[in-house]
């Protein structure tokens, strides 16, 4: 058998390894003929195959002991048959129930919301290269009668061609973020990029955010050439773009020639917590302030902690964070006041706290990311009658819509409005939330119309 790049599509021991060398039987692995230099790679390959066998026994990951051509033919035939019955599209994103990913990420929640509200009536093939689960062969799960989930590894050219063939057959591609076409390894190697712009494919891009600025902020780089290239490719080819805010639409119109692109403003609608009651702005009990979110640098946790220390007697503090130990490390050696509670919190616990809370911390900085954003946390706060405490208020479209908030400095000075005024502020914000929810529903119907054309 001629050596070739192992495409990972079968457990046949006659297959070659990824580097093109032939597999050596275990009994000969340590022989002089095999050579000690190849032992680590050979053992790693055998261990990977054992892992795949174990995974194949689990119903969640159905791995097929067949060649790529047979599996691809089956998938393409399924897609052709489904096209006779309903709209079919590929979705370039992880499945929102993928166990290798954190469900606390806003990115994953957006995927779940779009899947349930917009794509529920369609046959969808999710295609994804996960940085944490790197299959040595195509993983194709039939999740339901209307959902197939494909994971590929861009290290293998055959897996790239497999994913591209599926996308072309679907004919419509809904991309969650421009980042999904960039390979996890060696982004400078264009041969590893997913080619989605060849063939007759219609494109819908759900932008999610200003990814170039986000990448620069996280990596401390002024610009990532690969992210820039991916974004340019999309905006040179797409017909429709979904943006979270009008501010985000203006941002992209300033960056690119967008005359042929239809923008649909689709605000964040759902979060982990279901909406509050009709009169959520009415609060009972002692004054309380809440926070729900992560401990990332952009959340300004240490600044929030200073505000809590300075205003310790103002309110009770209910703080739900993904990593309480990190929050504790940032707090330092000073004892935490008895009226400050820090925990992870279940959705029910957070909802109960939201119903009681008068104020909520959202301490974002002044940058492009926040100026075009529609934070889930802010939407949750105002839907529950919680007046936000903010460091920077020009977030997305909220100020244009008349958002009422308390500046952080005012909170730290203890100059809080009387409860009657706070209720008025919360009522105003609740009206903004309902308006944005209505815009989301209208946008969702518009996208459904585009998909069924």
According to DSSP, the number of beta strands is 14
- In CATH, what is the class of the largest domain? Alpha Beta
Q: What is the CATH superfamily classification of the largest domain?
A: Glycogen Phosphorylase B
Structural domain tally: 2
| N-to-C span | 49 Å
CATH architecture group name of the largest domain = 3-Layer(aba) Sandwich
Which descriptors apply to this entry?
single chain, 453 residues, alpha/beta, Rossmann fold, 2 domains, six-stranded parallel beta sheet, 14 helices, 14 strands, 37% helix, globular, disordered N terminus
Description of the structure:
The protein has 453 residues and is α/β, with parallel strands linked by helices. It folds into two domains: 68-265, Rossmann fold, CATH 3.40.50; 288-439, Rossmann fold. It has helices at residues 39-56, 68-83, 106-117, 157-170, 211-219, 225-235, 246-255, 301-310, 324-331, 347-356, 368-371, 376-383, 408-412, 419-451, and strands at residues 88-92, 123-128, 139-144, 147-151, 172-176, 202-206, 240-243, 262-265, 288-293, 316-321, 340-343, 359-362, 387-390, 406-407. The strands form two sheets. The chain has an eight-stranded mixed β-sheet, with helices on both faces. A six-stranded parallel β-sheet has the order 11-10-9-12-13-14. Helix 2 runs parallel beside helix 4 (157-170).
Quick summary of this structure?
The chain has 453 residues and is an alpha/beta fold. It is built from 14 helices and 14 strands. The strands form 2 sheets. It has an 8-stranded mixed β-sheet with strand order 3-4-2-1-5-6-7-8, sandwiched between helices. Strands 11-10-9-12-13-14 form a 6-stranded parallel β-sheet.
């Amino acid at each position: 058998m001629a050596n070739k790049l192992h495409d990972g599509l079968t457990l046949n021991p006659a297959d070659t390894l990824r580097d093109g060398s032939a597999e050596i039987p275990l009994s000969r692995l340590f022989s002089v003929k095999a050579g000690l230099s190849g032992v680590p790679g050979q053992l790693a390959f055998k261990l990977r195959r054992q892992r795949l066998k174990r995974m194949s026994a689990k119903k969640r990951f159905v791995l097929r002991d067949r060649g790529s051509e047979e599996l691809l033919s089956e998938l393409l035939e399924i897609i052709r048959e489904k096209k006779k019955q309903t709209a079919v599209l590929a979705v370039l994103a992880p499945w929102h129930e993928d166990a290798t990913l954190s469900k606390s990420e806003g990115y994953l929640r957006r995927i779940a919301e779009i899947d349930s509200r917009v794509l529920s009536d369609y046959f969808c093939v999710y295609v994804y290269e996960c940085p944490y689960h790197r299959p040595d062969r195509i993983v194709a799960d039939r999740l339901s009668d209307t959902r197939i989930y494909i994971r590929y590894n861009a290290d293998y050219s055959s897996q790239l061609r497999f994913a591209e063939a599926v996308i072309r057959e679907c004919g419509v591609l809904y991309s969650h973020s421009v980042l999904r076409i960039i390979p996890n390894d060696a982004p400078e190697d264009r041969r590893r990029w997913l080619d989605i712009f060849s063939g007759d494919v219609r494109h819908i891009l759900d932008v999610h955010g200003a990814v170039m600025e986000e990448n620069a902020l996280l990596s401390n780089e002024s610009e990532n050439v690969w992210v820039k290239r991916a974004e340019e490719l999309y905006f040179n080819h797409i017909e429709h773009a979904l943006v979270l805010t009008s501010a985000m639409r203006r941002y992209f119109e300033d960056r690119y020639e967008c005359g042929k692109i239809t923008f649909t403003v689709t605000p964040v609608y759902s979060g982990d917590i279901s909406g509050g009651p009709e009169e959520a702005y009415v609060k009972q009990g002692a004054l309380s302030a809440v926070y729900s979110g992560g401990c990332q640098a952009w959340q300004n946790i240490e600044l929030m902690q200073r505000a809590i220390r300075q205003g310790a007697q103002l309110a009770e503090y209910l703080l739900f964070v993904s990593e309480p130990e990190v929050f504790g490390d940032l707090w330092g050696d000073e004892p935490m006041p008895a009226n400050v509670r820090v925990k992870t919190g279940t959705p029910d616990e957070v909802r109960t706290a939201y119903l009681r809370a008068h104020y909520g911390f959202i301490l974002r900085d002044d940058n492009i990311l926040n100026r075009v954003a529609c934070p889930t946390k802010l939407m949750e706060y105002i839907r529950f009658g919680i007046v936000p405490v903010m460091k920077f208020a020009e977030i997305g479209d909220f100020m244009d819509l008349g958002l009422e908030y308390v500046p952080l400095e005012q909170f730290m000075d203890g100059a809080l409005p009387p409860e009657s005024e706070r209720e008025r502020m919360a009522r105003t914000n609740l009206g903004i939330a309902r308006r944005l929810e209505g815009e989301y529903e209208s946008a969702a119907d518009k996208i459904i119309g585009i998909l069924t054309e």
